[in-house]
Amino acid sequence: MGIVMLITFLFGVGPLDPVLESESPYLILFTNTGSTGVAIFLMIVLFLLIFSGNITALATTSREVWAFSRDRGLPGSTWMSKMNQRWHVPFNAVYVTSFFTGVLSCINFGSTLAFNIIISLSLLALLSTYMISIGCVLLKRVRGEPLPIARWSMGRFGIVINSFAFLYSAFAIVFCCFPAGLPVTPGDANWAPLVWFFVICVALVSYVTYGHKHYTPPVMYVEGRRAAGVGLQTTA
Fold it and tell me: What domain of life (predicted)?
């Protein structure tokens, strides 16, 4: 679907000079339809998609914060791991996620460059975490070690798909570190690798000073690996 949308966009966007100079190239595509009504309709659809995407992103991120807090991997875990038993929503984790999202968004008022530097981390962070999780599964498959029982499995195709996903993520990470163009200036440099390295250093310091004393890895609760008398995680 992405390829179909890309081809449609490239054929309908018109001359490239106005597009390259525009901050919102998709608006030019919408106006090229020749109908104000169609352009407005497409804008509404785009707005609804962005709004829905923000809701799912908030839900995903807040539940990751909640799960990490449940395993005592973050400072203030006792408070952030609370679950509202009526709505089944970790409201405290939602509040924390929303607060830090708002703080990071405010950076754009002071410096667009600083804001772009921070958000440039997202792709490298996603790909690197994919490589870690997929790589661990792939390593166990290569060694022939049993994986925890799952409700769904790709069977013998799993090692092929895992290998492709791991190699593709590694390939994409390399190109994510290149600058967008030459010559490179502080204003258009690719700061993602530096921010990525900084976050990794902060995470390591956090683990050494706090995490290794309190964090309980989820594997400790997996059937067959769980120590005698150890129960599942509980939340308030």
Answer: Eukaryota
Q: Phi, psi at residue 179, to the nearest 5°?
A: -70, 160
Nearest-Å Rg of the Cα atoms of the chain is: 22
Can you tell me which residue has the tokens 């166990």? 140
Taking the model in full, what pTM does it have? 0.74
CB of 147 closer than 8 Å to CB of 154: no
Q: Measure CA 20 to chain center.
A: 27
| CB-based contact 70:80 (threshold 8 Å) | no
Tens place of pLDDT per residue across the chain (236 aa) = 889 988 988 887 888 888 878 877 788 888 888 888 988 998 999 999 999 999 999 999 999 999 999 888 888 889 999 999 899 999 999 999 999 999 988 988 888 777 877 777 888 888 999 999 999 999 999 998 888 778 888 888 999 999 999 999 999 999 888 887 788 888 778 888 988 999 899 989 988 988 888 888 877 776 666 666 666 666 56
Q: Is 39 exposed, middle or buried (0-12, 13-18, 19+ CB in 10 A)?
A: middle
DSSP bridge pairs for 84: 89
Q: What distance in Å separates the CA atoms of residue 162 and residue 137, rounded to the nearest whole number?
A: 8
